[in-house]
Amino acid sequence: MQVADADKALRRELHFYTLYRLLEAAMLLLVLFGPFAEQLPDPRHLPFAMAIAIAYAFVAVLLFVFGRKGNLRICTLAGISADLFFGILAIHAIPAAGTGIALMLIFNIGAAALLLPTRYGIGFALAAVGGLIAEHLWSSMIDELPGVSLVQPLMFSVGYMAMATLTSLLGRQMRASHALAEERGEQTAHLVEVNELIIRRLRTGVLLVDGHNRITLANEAAIVLLGGAKEEDWQLDAVLPELARRLTAWRNGAKPDETPFQPSPEFSEVVPRFTRLLAGSDQTLIFLDDTSLVSKRAESITLSTLGRFSASLAHEIRNPLAAINYAVQLLEESDDIRPADRRLLEIIRQQGGRMNGIVDNVLGLARREPAKPEHVDLVLLTRQFINEYQAGHPLEDDSLTSTSTRPALPAMVDPRQLHQVLTVLVHNALLYGRKPGEAARITLHVATESNGGVRIDVLDRGPGIPERQATQLFKPFFTTSPHGTGLGLYIARELCRANQATLEYVPTPGVGSCFRIRFPASAARAAA
Question: Which of 22, 168, 158, 154 is nearest to 83 (CA)?
Fold first, then answer.
């Protein structure tokens, strides 16, 4: 802390010091010009004494005026210098009032030592002692009174030094205490700012409500829940009536209702918690916990557990799958298999290979292994995918076709993972992308993007997806089917991310649905 900052705390003391100086100047004028002037012995030098009194009064007024806004140290130095200068001269000019003037100077020296650093305070005390002794010797020589005792000046000298020492120590302690208080105040203010920032940025809504259900404070999350209402309209009964009802019940001694409620359709559900600000106070703190945060934490834990489980399950599936593939190979080598059955064996072998690829993808996803991209022609890949899908999944009246804007569109992608993504999207389109009583019409459309990237659109002609459900399509465990797991689209998006691609739902009002896989321009250029 700077010395100037600590000196600000002594500004009041300087003001009293300047007032005391005005009192001294007024008393000196009263001694010379007042009604009791004739009753006192004549001054040693009357004109000189009058000049001293008038000059000191003028200086005292100036110091009083400038002492309010001027530099504390400069004002104090000028003041104590004037006090000692005019005080010693006044003692010499008015011997009858010398003892009183010397006595009053004790306060001046003490005030200077309080307001100034220790070396200055002791220095002026020594100057006062020297001036007092010099004046005594000067007076003895002028009055030709040899052998006049120095006891009185020496006693005043001891008093000056003692007063300067004590007040200097007191001033040092005052500065140290003020500096410590300022430091603690800054730390407290900093902590208050940090606490306010933490509360303001909390995802949990925080409300302070008085006894009349008036909201007096709210953090950012709570203000959002208030729907942007102006502060003067923050009446809990009006903006959040359900919360006001629960608060009233809690104040009346009822058990807190911890069931989630939705403040408005566009916000997540919250769970309110109530606590009194202070014991016996009518002010209540309300914490509004966002249930979506709890759901996300639970979802993260579930996904982590699911990842470990799926990895274990994939290992278990791989063993019987290997046995099935080996048995198919043995059957294919047999001469007793009819040609029609060999086609079935070929389908089993192909699907077994696909299953093995899916197991590898699940293991890679659980381990967060990177994809193994290859140079792939997306137009050719989609056609091959359709042939393989139709071979393993009879479509009957449904149709699955592919279109493209160019004969060939290359990209860098892991073909096995892309095959799995397309399987999920086509399977969902066949299930949900049809109108009641009509056949499904699925199209895989490969096209270029304006930024140089490539995309694959999986299009259907179904009823489309409601907007509220569309925002949750890629969340794990979200499904509208009683037999679904809600992991298909989630895993598909993760596989796309592993290939530096994106998977998104593109609304197409009135003409069905579109799931779009976007490959960045860098992937298209690398494969070109």
Answer: 22
